[in-house]
Design brief:
about 140 residues; alpha+beta; five-stranded antiparallel beta sheet; 4 helices
Length: about 140
């Protein structure tokens, strides 16, 4: 039987009961920073499989990498036309600036990776990691 509680609710109960979490969850910020740097270093040289809890509470295995040799080149982006203001006077009087593409800032607790099976960019949260599997060769 699946647990009807969301992952966040389960985490609250885990913390209230003082039950241990993952190494990442139990580390201080320095330890988390060291872990993230190590993980990025491994991802940049090889592929790994991460098992993590998705936002809907289910487990997912993802074979991923940041190794540029394993990521296919992306086609060039088409240039987007500038958006016009609904009322010309707003832009003219400085109420509206130039249209800019908004990008979401990368959060330190998430990792963007290339999913080798899906052939697309995905991300996972470090605090939701359950298992990391990597094969390293020292040749």
């Amino acid at each position: 039987m699946e647990n009807p509680l969301s992952w966040e609710q389960q985490e609250v109960f885990r913390l209230l009961k003082s039950q241990p979490g993952t190494m990442y969850q139990e580390s201080d910020e320095t330890g988390r920073h060291i872990f993230r740097d190590w993980m990025r270093g491994v991802l940049e040289v090889t592929e790994i499989t991460v098992t993590f809890v998705k936002a809907d509470g289910t487990l997912r295995d993802m074979r991923c990498t940041l190794d540029r040799d394993r990521i296919p080149p992306q086609p060039p982006r088409a240039e987007k036309p500038a958006k016009e203001a609904p009322v010309d006077g707003l832009r003219q009087h400085g109420f509206l600036g130039e249209a800019k593409e908004v990008t979401k800032p990368e959060e330190s607790h998430t990792q963007k990776v290339f999913d080798l099976d899906a052939g697309a960019w995905r991300s996972f949260r470090y605090d939701r990691l359950k298992k990391i599997t990597a094969t390293m060769s020292f040749e």
